[in-house]
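Example record

One chain of 111 residues, shown exactly as stored in the release files.
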Amino acid sequence: MVEDCLFCKIVHGEIPSEFLYEDEECVVFRDINPHAPVHLLIVPKRHIRSINDLEHGDASLVGRMFLVAKKMAEAENINKSGYKVLFNVEKGGGQVIFHLHLHLIGGWDRK
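Predicted structure tokens for this chain:
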């Protein structure tokens, strides 16, 4: 855990948040500043600063994050209407919280 990391504090229960999903490697919660009707964050429990800090051994974690995104899209009923998954990388790429996280964004048309 990195002491000044917002997502580390959420993962470790220091900042209250409702987890929509949790397993041994990651948690899912709603973005507090949503850009769509459904905007979830898939966050690894282990602190990894950004995609630039991933190592070869992290491949299974990243794969798991995408599978969790798929599962959450189904749970939020946006799997058929469509959705986006997005990593922001570094400031120039829009990353604001420097703890790896995958955005699941959708719900504009839940038909």
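Notes: The beta strands are 21-22, 26-30, 38-44, 83-86, 102-106.
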